[in-house]
């Protein structure tokens, strides 16, 4: 009886968006009278940070401070249409719609500023700090003044509309070729494990991953997503199931007290490298990274278990019971 060590590797390429009749998303932006900008969406933030990324994209496109962006996720009944938060589509689809809306709102803002500065719109530039100035001079006006003048003096709405739509791709009946998504992100994971061949218990010793995700709009949130995805992947690989003996319902968890998953203290050492290769057509080059972060750990751990003790298990979770049965069959 011994504790055996193994190493496994797995890779994935993951699509951004889906081929769903255009996969549309809409966005609206308007300036308030005091110079803030409200981004209105029908999209949902599930905790992945969509509100923050949307605010960054809007601020960058408008040329105004991040702190002046207010993201209103409204609701799916009265807000702008969104296909949904799934398929790693949020940053790409919503981000593109927000860029379009912000570009239109920026144009309206500069038109008002041009009247106040008695200059051509083509000669104006924003500094990202809340000011609009005539290029090559110190002649400037604040975004707050512009918003106030638009509302109370000039009578012009500073706002914009945006909609991202990827045309439906039909399948070529001869070749099966189609264009179902807007690009692919990529990842590769190495996992080291220890397998106790007496108890069947697997201990993950460490995980190393590399992710190619286009442009990272917010690198801190990207790494948080990867950390959380790694935890989920390990949990799926070794612990989580609602039907351990399906179709027999015996020993199935009935609540979250009985539902087996690792705790925060069980998180393994993780090292991550993020590679940026901007995607043409992505908002500032971004791709989707949502779901793929929980993918590669599962096959990497399965491969590491095979490397450690020679058993190939293709059912998850890979429980001690399944490992011991496989070892018995292996002889």
In short:
By secondary structure, the protein is an alpha+beta fold. The protein contains six helices and eleven strands. The chain folds into two domains: about 5-15 and about 185-330, 2-Layer Sandwich (Aldehyde Oxidoreductase, domain 4), CATH 3.30.365; about 25-165, 2-Layer Sandwich (Aldehyde Oxidoreductase, domain 4), CATH 3.30.365.
Protein traits:
elongated; Aldehyde Oxidoreductase, domain 4; alpha+beta; four-stranded mixed β-sheet; 331 residues; single chain
Helix content: 25-40%
State the distance separating the first and last CA atoms. 13 Å
Q: How many structural domains can be distinguished in the coordinates?
A: 2
Low-confidence stretches: none
Rg over CA atoms: 25 Å
What would the CATH topology of the largest domain be? Aldehyde Oxidoreductase, domain 4
Which geometry do the CA atoms define?
elongated
**Strand content range:** 15-25%
Average pLDDT, all residues: 93
Full CATH superfamily name of the largest domain: Aldehyde oxidase/xanthine dehydrogenase, molybdopterin binding domain
Elements, N to C (H/E)? EEEHEHEEEHEEEHEHH
| Main β sheet profile | 4 strands, mixed
Judging by the overall fold, what is the CATH architecture of the largest domain? 2-Layer Sandwich
């Amino acid at each position: 009886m011994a504790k055996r060590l193994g190493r496994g590797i797995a890779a994935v390429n993951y699509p951004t968006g889906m081929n769903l009749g255009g996969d549309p998303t809409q966005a609206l932006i308007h300036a308030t009278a005091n110079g803030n900008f409200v981004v209105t969406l029908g999209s949902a933030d599930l905790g992945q940070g969509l509100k923050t990324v949307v605010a960054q994209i809007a601020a960058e496109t408008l040329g105004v401070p991040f702190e002046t962006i207010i993201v209103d996720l409204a609701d799916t009944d009265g807000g702008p249409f969104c296909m949904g938060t799934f398929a790693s589509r949020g940053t790409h689809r919503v981000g593109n719609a927000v860029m379009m809306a912000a570009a239109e709102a920026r144009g309206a803002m500069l038109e008002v500023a041009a009247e106040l500065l008695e200059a051509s719109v083509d000669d104006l530039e924003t500094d990202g700090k809340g000011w609009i100035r005539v290029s090559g001079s110190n002649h400037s006006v604040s975004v707050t003044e512009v918003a106030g003048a638009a509302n109370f003096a000039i009578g012009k709405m500073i706002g914009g509309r945006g909609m991202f739509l990827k045309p439906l791709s039909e399948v070529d009946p001869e070749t099966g070729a189609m264009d179902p998504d807007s690009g692919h992100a990529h990842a590769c994971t190495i996992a080291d494990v220890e397998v106790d061949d007496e108890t069947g218990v697997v201990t993950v010793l460490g995980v190393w991953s590399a992710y190619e995700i286009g442009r990272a709009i917010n690198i801190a949130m990207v790494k948080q997503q990867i950390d959380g995805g790694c935890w989920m992947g390990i949990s799926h690989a070794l612990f989580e199931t609602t039907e351990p003996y399906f179709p027999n319902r015996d020993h199935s968890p009935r609540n979250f007290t009985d539902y087996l998953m690792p705790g925060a203290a069980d998180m393994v050492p993780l090292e991550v490298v993020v590679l940026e290769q901007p995607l043409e057509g992505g908002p500032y080059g971004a791709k989707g990274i949502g779901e793929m972060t929980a993918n590669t750990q599962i096959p990497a751990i399965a491969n590491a278990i095979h490397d450690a003790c020679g058993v190939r298990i293709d059912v998850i979770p890979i429980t001690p019971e399944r490992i011991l049965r496989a070892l018995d069959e292996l002889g």
